[in-house]
Amino acid sequence: MQGKVRIGVMGAAGRMGQMLIRAVGEAEAATLTGVTERPGHAWIGRDLGEAMGGPARGVTVSDDPLEVFAGADAVIDFTTPQATLANAALAAQARCVHVIGTTGFTDKEIAALEPAQRHSVQVRAGNMSLGVNLLTLLTRKVAQALGEDFDIEIVEMHHRHKVDAPSGTALMLGEAAAAGRGVAFADVADRGRDGQTGARRRGDIGLAALRGGDVVGEHDVIFAADGERIVLRHLATDRMIFARGAVRAALWGQGRKPGAYDMIDVLGMRD
Q1: N or C: which end of the chain has fewer CB within 10 A?
Q2: Its pTM surpasses 0.85
Q3: Which UniProt keywords apply (predicted)?
């Protein structure tokens, strides 16, 4: 593709949306061509730069996602599951790369994303940082190497405003651990304990979610056996790592065949 990759951003006014806008601006190979906000938002119809408190950027904030998809080569979407499902259909219609950082999907909603994958490149990941995706690979390999004498627990902490739990990253790590053991994550996930729960079931993968303060993201994968523990940890201190990863995915998706991809594909680490 000649020239810069045209990228749109869904949810421009949000904290993540503004970071995505910054990340697109930092990328030499990309240019920002459109952004959206929900209908009725104060930014609608305004120049994006002025709405963000800076100089004009020549991009008007829209409440019409179709308009943004039609003018973009890739759209980055960190919104809500319901909005992302609607956006996936627009991406398929526009044959546009759809980078999905949205979390909190149900299994049914994830399945509902599949039809769009026949017509568009869809890159979806619960976390788009390089470090977390390396942690995912390590989790799978360690789980594969260790038997069920090692209990697996995943502990995550995020800021007080996060609305879904466990985090998409924690679920991604759980899927990786289950894949390493050759089992279905849904069959072994223990997503909450309270009261008289009984002894821990052998082979389960436990998840615990902590919320407080302004924590960007902390994830521990604990392998615990009698007499020893192995702890794999990732600490995020700047949300820009997620935004830069998303832009990298948007650029990587250009010229790919339609289908479902994740950050392991983007980073070239697929086995």
Answers
A1: C
A2: no
A3: Amino-acid biosynthesis, Cytoplasm, Diaminopimelate biosynthesis, Lysine biosynthesis, NAD, NADP, Oxidoreductase
